[in-house]
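This is your field. Have a critical look at both lines of this record:
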Amino acid sequence: MNKKHVKKIIIVLVIILLIAVFKVFNLGEYFSLAYIKESQEKFDLLYAEH
């Protein structure tokens, strides 16, 4: 194998690893609109209290 193939394989493996971590830890919920709205409401309440 030459260096180009090794680099491509490493890039593909890193992408697969990132996707696996994203799925295993259920990180998709943090990018949903409902989560963002809920976080905004919590922040607004916290801001209003202080």
